[in-house]
Amino acid sequence: MPRYYTPHEVRAHCFEDDAYVSINGKVLDITPLIQMYQGTRYASLLQPLILAAGTDMTHLLDKKTMDFKTCIDPETGFRTYAQPFGRFAHTPTVLPDSSIDLSYEVPWWQDERYVIGQLTRKTRKIRIVNTLNGHEHTLEVCSEETLREIVMTRYLSHNAHALSYTWRRLDSEPRDLDMDKTLDENGVLDESEEFESLGLNADYYIPALHLYYDDDLTEA
Question: For the whole model, what pTM was predicted?
C-alpha cells in the first residue's frame, strides 16, 4: 500500500540534497536524479528542478497526454516543452545537439523509480489524547490513511507504545476504533468544509481520539 503525503510534507523537502515534487497526485523523490547529474556537464539542467523542489508541478502537465505541456519556440518555430524556469533534465533541445543526455529510457517524471507515494486528496486534523498521562497531540493526517498508518508514520515518534493502547472515540456512542480503517470509515467525520461554509475556521472543531493503555508489555 502506498504512503500518502500531505502538501506540507512535500514542501518540507525543498533542498538540493533533499528534493520532493508532486505531479498528478504522485510524490517523487528526485534527490537521486539531482545527485546523479551534479558535477557533470549536464549540471546546469538541475537548477529548474532545485527551484521546483517542494512544490506541485501538476500545472505544467497536459491533462490529455500526461506529459509536460508544449509550446512553439519563438526563435525556431519548432514545438518544444514549455519550461518557464529553463531547460531541465530529460527534455530535448529545440535543435539537434550531440551533447544531450541520452542515457535514460524513461524521463524522470514518468519513471516509477522516483515515485515514493501518493499526494493526499484531502488533509484533516485530529487530536490524540493519551488518558494515561494526559498528553495531547494535534496531527495533520491524510484522509486516505488508516489509523494504523497514522500511528506508524505520524504518531509513533510521540508515543513508541502507541499500538499498546485501545483507541476510542468518545462521542454520543463511545466505541473502540478499528485500526485498519480510515477515520471516515470509523465514523470520525471531517466537518471542516461545513465549518468553512458557515464562515467558521476549518479548525473550529478538531475531533479527539482517546487512548487507553492495555498494558500488554509491547516493546517499543
Answer: 0.86
